[in-house]
Write a structure and sequence with these properties.
This protein has helices spanning about 5-25, 35-60. The chain has about 60 residues and is mainly α. It has one domain (about 5-60).
Length: about 60
């Protein structure tokens, strides 16, 4: 995996991820006023950030710098 693939994966995948989040937290859906929904959003954002860091570390340790 190289840097271009990483950028493509997280730009395109991130776009789908955030569009889906927007649909989930749109009118009539989940609400940021609810503690449970805020916690779910935090876990989702932490998850995508965690996967990004994991992939980044994997590339660096594999010598892809």
């Amino acid at each position: 995996m190289n840097w271009l693939q990483l950028a493509y994966e997280y730009i395109l995948g991130g776009l789908f991820f955030f569009v889906t989040l927007r649909l989930c937290f749109g009118p009539g859906a989940a609400s940021l006023k609810s503690a449970s929904d805020r916690r779910t959003l935090a876990w989702l954002l932490a998850g995508i950030a965690g996967y990004f860091v994991l992939h980044l570390v994997w590339i660096v340790t594999a010598g892809g710098v």
